[in-house]
Amino acid sequence: MGYLLALTVFLAPTYVIKFEVFGLPANLLMLWVFVFWVIFASNLSYKKRWADFFYTSFSINRTLLVAILAFFFAGTFSLFVYGFSTAKLGQFLVLFLQPISLFIIGRFIFLQNPKAKSLLLTTCYLLLALMGVYATLQYFTLIGLPEAYWGNNIEPKRALSIFAHPNFYSLFITPLLAFLLPDAIASLKSKILNLKLLAWIIGAAGLFFSLSRAGWLGLLAAVIAYMIVAADKKMRLAFFALMVVGIIFVFSITNLRYRIILPLLGEKSAISRTSLWQTGFKGIQESPIPGMGLVGFSQNWSRLNTDPNIDSHNYPHNIFLNFWVETGLLGLICFIIISAMIIYRGLRHYVIPEAASAKRGGYPESKTWIPNQTQDNIIRLGISLFFIALITQGLIDNPYFKNDLALIFWIILSLAI
């Protein structure tokens, strides 16, 4: 089953392959999850493990379990806010039912077979490397890159890998880069060719060439968090030196320099974000408790929006506004609780106070952080960084309300609990 779960992660980008089934919209990823359900259920029946599965499903920290159940309830309730539709049903299926079911299944698989965790990490590295290679190739050769992203007076040259937009690519890989950061650094101790670190660097290069400022900001937040809680003095000095070199490099290249400073000068994308947030707040003011329901923001766009210079959008492009508008106040609160608990648990389990001075019977003049280098704690820290990157990037983008992003979110979460 671990291989099938890893394959599900690998197939996450196939949501772009769309078609109809019995007149209803569908995509390849959605159908694969249905197939996975059937295979998993058949395996449980064959091995007579249904009792174990149900027991495991509810053997979670009580607060976290209540938050997850309430989050699912908020998604279910949002199906019926301002009326039911097949469009809402489709969103509920790919944003709540399928991802949360995979969280439950994934948790069961990891508890029964801890080695499946390593397989999932390897799959994530493979995805980063393959996408990063293609994105880098696109940037320097224009192969497979739509003409709109070759560089013009509207958009600079930007890589998008296998996705339809550079921001979609960035939304997919930024949290994964943050998640794998502790494992990639821990692998530096390996005496053989470090393929993990190489894959991570290739993925980071792809993110760089996407020119996604939200992605850059999200990964930077995760790296800084890692440096604060897990790095030693040498690594922090190296990071500081790298930051100085990076800043000099970025500001010495015209396209990159203006990519950073234009939002401060009233660039269209920055203005559009402000307009989107205002539209989102307007929707919340109309319906503060239940929100506007799934697809409610997009369906009410023409009525809520007052800026004629901005194109239609499906979400307000702020993770907190997104959840509030689409799933109501309950969905937002549950997301915050889940995120806060996972971030806290990851940092708590990974760092310990300075131990050397304590052994000598003295007290350290200042506390430093010493990594507790077990595989589980490395993964927990990685998941904390995953959430930090996702939330930071989500301040100006939409890192959950897409098939692939919701699926990755819940599968990664299943590693933490």
UniProtKB/TrEMBL annotation:
Coiled coil (residue ranges): none
Membrane topology, as annotated: Multi-pass membrane protein
Protein origin, superkingdom: Bacteria
Pfam families: Wzy_C
InterPro entries: O-antigen_ligase-rel_domated, WaaL-like
Keyword annotations from UniProtKB, A to Z: Membrane, Transmembrane, Transmembrane helix
All residue ranges annotated as the O-antigen ligase-related domain in the record: 200-336
Signal sequence segment: none
Location of this chain's protein in the cell: Membrane
Transmembrane segments: 28-44, 64-84, 90-110, 119-140, 160-181, 193-209, 215-231, 238-258, 323-344, 377-396
Annotated Gene Ontology cellular component terms: membrane
Record-given protein name: O-antigen ligase-related domain-containing protein
Organism, as annotated: Candidatus Doudnabacteria bacterium CG10_big_fil_rev_8_21_14_0_10_42_18
